Amino acid sequence: MAAILKMAVVTLAITLTFASTTPKQREVPTRMKYAMFRVDFFHDEISTIRLKLEFSAKQPPNFEHFRGDTMSVFRPLTEDEVRKIIKSSPAKSCCLDPIPTPL
Q1: Dmax of the chain from CA atoms?
Q2: DSSP code for 23
Q3: What letter would DSSP give residue 62?
Q4: pLDDT per residue over 9-50, tens digit each?
Q5: Buried b / exposed e across 19-29, counting CB within 10 Å, b at 16+?
Q6: Domain coordinates of the chain in residue numbers?
Q7: pTM more than 0.85
Q8: Which residue of 16, 57, 76, 98 sits 20 to 30 Å from the alpha carbon of 40, by its own alpha carbon?
């Protein structure tokens, strides 16, 4: 299965690599080496991540009891306090934000 997936990725990489080239620019051995390098790189990265996940799954979880102060009493905030907190936070945005931060 891994060999089939690897060949599919190589085929895709070659197709994408040649898509924007002219016939004179197509140097198959060089481009094939580059495509294989990319496939090997990503394969190694995925293997490393899987090994780390397997290792972390083998370690028992740590369920120490919390020894800090608890927050058991809350008071309502005024509209001005909420506005002040929001305006003092950095205006950073992410493409996953439902609306831009400045709004």
Answers
A1: 74
A2: G
A3: -
A4: 666 666 666 555 555 555 556 777 777 778 888 888 888 888
A5: eeeeeeeeeee
A6: 2-58
A7: no
A8: 57
